[in-house]
Amino acid sequence: MEVLVANVDHIKFDIDYALEQQYGALPLPFPGMDKSTAAVCEFYSNPGGCNNGPQCPYRHVRGDRTVVCKHWLRGLCKKGDQCEFLHEYDMSKMPECYFYARFNACHNKECPFLHIDPESKIKDCPWYDRGFCRHGPHCRHRHVRRVLCINYLSGFCPDGPNCKYMHPRFELPAPPEQTKDAKRLPVCHYCSEVGHKASSCNKIPQEKREAAQKQEEARYRALGYVKPANESDDAENEPAVNPKAYPLADAALTAKILNLVQQAANYKQLRKGANEATKTLNRGLSEFVIMAADAEPLEIVLHIPILCEDKNVPYVFVRSKQALGRACGVSRPIVACSITINEGSQLKPQIQGIQQEIERLLV
Predict the structure, then answer these.
(1) CA gap 216, 70 in Å, rounded
(2) What is the pLDDT of residue 176?
(3) What does the pLDDT look like over 38-82, one tens digit per residue?
(4) Where does the pLDDT of residue 179 fall: very low under 50, low under 70, confident under 90, or very high at 90 and above?
(5) Mean pLDDT score across all residues of the chain
(6) What local confidence, expressed as pLDDT, does residue 276 receive?
(7) What CATH code is assigned to 251-362?
(8) CB of 182 within 8 A of CB of 349?
(9) Quick one: angle between helices 348-362 and 251-266, nearest 10?
C-alpha cells in the first residue's frame, strides 16, 4: 500500500499552519486567569518569546519550577504564569507537609503534601566518620556505626570502593567561604594603608589621634562595653556574680559580644527576651545565646543553658543586663537574647569567631 500511495510528508496543509501559528487564538480578557487545562504555548520557548504576554490563552511553562503551588491547589493563586511554582497536579513535586516536618506527625489521612522522613534530612557527621566526635550522642549530625576495613587501615584494600567494610575518610569538611574574610586586615581611614586603624596611625597628628581615641572610649562607655577610667578595677568594687552564671565572659569578650549584638540588631538577626531566645532554640534558628548574670532572680533564665546543651548551641553570660539592653537598641534591661541564623550574612565571620571563644570557655 505504501508503494501505491504517494508520500505526503513534504506537504503541509492549511490546518498545520494554523495550529503552528496559533491562528484564531484570542487573547484573554484579563491576565492571571487559570490556564491549567490549556495547551502549552509554542512561542514562549522561542528566543523571540510570546507576543501576547500574560494574556496569552496558552500556558507559559518554565523549567525552573519544581514545586507545586499550594495556592493553585485551592484555586487561590492570582499570579498566573508569573507564579514561581508549578500549576499542575504532580504528587512527586508537592511541597513538604508543615505538620509532619514540624511535629513529625500528620493526622490528615488524605494529606496531599509530601511526608519526608526527618532522619533522611540529617547529614552524616564528618568527625564521627573520621573516628571521634566530641559532641557524642548530642551531635546534631548523624552517627552511623560501621565496621572498619582492616586492609584499608593497614595501607591498601584490594576491593577498593566495592569493599563491604568502611573506608574512613580523614579529611575534614572545607570551611565556608565566609570565614576567609575573618582575617581581613583593617584599613586606615586617614592614610588608606592596610594593617592599622586611624586611631593608631603614625601619620595622623597627635591632637587628632587623642581626640579620636577619646571619642571611641566615650562611645564604648555609653554602650556599657568598658568601665570609665576613674572607676577602680579592684575586684572588691565589682558586684558579686552568681556562680550559676557560667560561663561568664571577661571584659574583652563582653565588648566583642555587645558589639556583635548591636550589629545583629541592625541586620535583624537578633531576638530579644528569654521567651524569644527559647523559641529560636526550639526552632533550630539560634547561633548562640547571651544572658545577663545580674538577672533577678537568675532562675528565670537558667532553663536556657539546659536547652542550649540539648540543642548543642553555645551560650554565655555577660555581667550587665543594662549594657545588654543598650546593645540591643532598647532603653530597658534585657536578661537574654539570641543571635539567629541567616545564610550569607556579613556577620558570619564575627559570629563564628565568638562561637569559638565561647566554646573555649565551656571546655
Answers:
(1) 53
(2) 57
(3) 777 877 777 777 877 777 888 777 766 778 888 888 888 877 777
(4) very low
(5) 79
(6) 93
(7) 3.30.1330.30
(8) yes
(9) 140
**What pLDDT, on a 0 to 100 scale, did the predictor assign at position 117?**
79
Q: Count other Cβ atoms within 10 Å, centred on residue 180.
A: 10
- Give yes or no for a contact between 286 and 340, defined as CB atoms under 8 angstroms apart: yes
* Residue 148 Cα distances to 132, 189, 221, 250, angstroms: 13, 57, 57, 44
What the block records as the C-alpha cell of 121 is 534530612
Distances (CA, A) of 299 to 98, 274, 278, 307: 34, 11, 14, 14
Question: Residue 257: which pLDDT band, with cuts at 50, 70 and 90?
Answer: very high
Domain boundaries, the chain: 12-89, 126-162, 185-223, 251-362
Q: How confident is the model at residue 15 (pLDDT cuts 50, 70, 90)?
A: confident
> What's the CA gap between 125 and 131, in Å, rounded?
10
